[in-house]
Amino acid sequence: GILIQERNGNLALVHQGDEVWTSSISEEEGSYTTTLQGDGNLLTMDANNNVVWASDSHSDIHTDYFLCLTSNKDELEVFRGTPENPFAKVWSSIDGPITGPPPPYNSPVTNADFSMTNSDHTVGVYYYPWYGNTDFNGRNYAREKINPPQLPSLGEYDQREPEVISEHLKMSRMANVNLWVTSWWGPGSATDRNTKAILENRDLPGMKIALFYETSGTIPNFSYVDNVKDHLAYAADNYFGSEHYLKINGRPVFFVYLARVLSQNGRLEAAVKEMREGARTRGYEIYIVGDSAFYKPPRGDYQAFELLDAVTNYDVYGSLGRPEYAGKQLIDQERDRQEGWRQAARKQGCDFIPAAEPGYNDNGVRNNNHQPMSRKLCRNCGFGSLFRELVQNAVEQCDFETGNMLMVTSFNEWHEDTQIEPVQGEGTTVNPNQITRGVDYQAYGTQYLDILREVTDRTSTTTARRHH
Fold this sequence. Notes:
This protein has 468 residues and is α/β, with parallel strands linked by helices. 25% of the residues lie in helices and 20% in strands. Helix 5 packs across helix 7 (268-280) and helix 10 (327-347) runs parallel beside helix 11 (385-396). GO terms for molecular function: alpha-mannosidase activity. It is found in: Golgi apparatus membrane.
């Protein structure tokens, strides 16, 4: 077979003088069209004209699709995955679109378990295991202080109780969540004790755990890294060897809170050096994720990309500029900024993990007069519309190299009202104003678990990455 370019830019496969295939196929749902561009590059596009593969290696056309000619040179095929690790054939020049149930997902997450969710994504949530007393850590959270209160559906729980963890695991699986990134304040802390208990919970299999290193408490003034090496050696001894601990290409994954502040203080390099050395004393090469992808992407080389293995954005509220209602225009701008972070990171060999958040209100715990961010995209939009938009954007910015990972802030950070954990009660309230600042609060039940499941379901996400 000979592959030639027709005058209209389409490709034709010619065998013994007869055209046996052309790339100009009908654009039915699920079909793919391949064309040769004026610059000499091949482009494969779906029925909606989204580029899903390109023959060049330019960073702004990066997807988890590739095109190849079969060994006997009589068929073109498009695969999902990478040439070294193909996942599924989605189209061929002979058979057209490949339909049917997807095969088992071959993820770079070495120990990934997708058996208990209906998603090809690693859907992560920041999980806070610090609720361990009868007054729910001082009851300093907005949902308790509004009138009437909107408490957790489990009540003000104690995470030292195995039944609480089991219920949270059930809730998480309802939402396709298969990763908990657990807040960790170092050896001997309450979060340390409770995270160890999570690893021993009988209902944990199928869920992965990774530590979220709380630098505001473990690195004093975001400057003094003297304890970091010992902390990582401890983490290696107590967590990294667990079958439930998240690993990417065999490397334990370690999330670092406020890595961007360490960068601003000129201490990220020293901190990362201590982290890696601490893990190496126990025989581990770790995969470090820092929340550096905040607001505008950098221009030119950026040191954090050289030091970290991946970047993400924990504080979506701050990155949006702390709005009352984010609005579609601002969300689109944030999507483009995050895409800028993604492309800049990839140019320097660093991975990117997109993020989403349902809303924000820290007026129950801090006296700083912050404007709450509504869970509605606009004043007249429905509750949950902001979260749905952010999760949809995150799904489109996932990458194969991280196991199509996205992160949600948070499962249960009640103090900042970023939780997706279900609440009790019904109805809405705007009282009292010193807490709500006029933003209405809904007793949302399981709504945010439902949204996360709907958007990340395998039936809803046919690709891990589409170029816009």
